[in-house]
Design brief:
Blueprint (H helix, E strand, L loop, with lengths): L1 E10 L9 H9 L6 E8 L3 E7 L6 H10 L4 E10 L14 H13 L7 E4 L3 H18 L4 H13 L2 H8 L3 H10 L2 H13 L6
């Protein structure tokens, strides 16, 4: 058996963004991470799905997904569980099993909630409550990010230094720092680290 994390998202108010599929597919193709075992793709009209190895050991992938989908906004359901090794396909839409059911259930619940944008289901309800509280706080902060803050955080996180980020963005290091500080990047980064570390509770 192989443990995986399924990430399923839907586009909020997709009807207000006609003909988004082609440009979004190109953006998703740029979303690359070593933990991804089935790349993110669009299906069912306005839904996006991808798979990562094991527990969501790289929670920053959720942030990457939101970044690459801008200006579209997403609701995201995350499911964790095991499937047979030989069930892994290039396209996640050809697969099924417990983690897919949990991700779908999480997404359906998110669609009914007013202030929640990300929800995870692992089958362990108490664990899920704890993790979803962290996601709620992350979402609350990120939902207020401006385009400039999204760019500053992403470029800084990708390069590791304000100097390199300032070169790519064409602004001073001080402005990169200001944008990251306004985005509460240190707090988001710490929350993502905690999400990465708590996988041990799943056994």
């Amino acid at each position: 058996m192989r443990k995986i994390t399924v990430i399923t998202a839907d586009i909020i108010d997709s009807r207000n963004h006609p003909n988004f599929e082609k440009s979004l597919s190109a953006k998703l193709a740029k979303l690359d991470h070593p933990a991804i075992i089935s790349t993110f793709s669009i299906s069912r009209g306005d839904e996006i799905q991808g798979i990562t190895e094991g527990w969501l050991t790289a929670p920053e992938i959720i942030r990457y997904l939101r970044y690459h989908c801008r200006p579209l906004k997403l609701r995201i359901g995350i499911g964790f569980g095991a499937i047979e090794d030989d069930e892994i396909e290039k396209s996640s839409w050809l697969m099924n099993g417990p983690p897919f059911y949990l991700a779908r259930t999480a997404l359906e619940e998110v669609q009914k909630l007013r202030d929640t944008l990300t929800l995870i289901k692992t089958g362990e309800s108490e664990f899920d409550k704890f993790v979803n509280c962290i996601w709620l706080l992350i979402d609350t902060i990120q939902d207020r990010w401006t385009d400039e803050q999204w760019e500053a955080v992403h470029i800084y996180d990708s390069n590791g230094t304000y100097e390199e980020a300032s070169k790519q963005l064409g602004i001073s290091m001080q402005n990169v720092q200001k944008r990251c500080k306004a985005a509460r990047w240190n707090q988001i980064n710490q929350a993502e680290k905690i999400l990465k570390e708590i996988q041990s509770y799943l056994g």
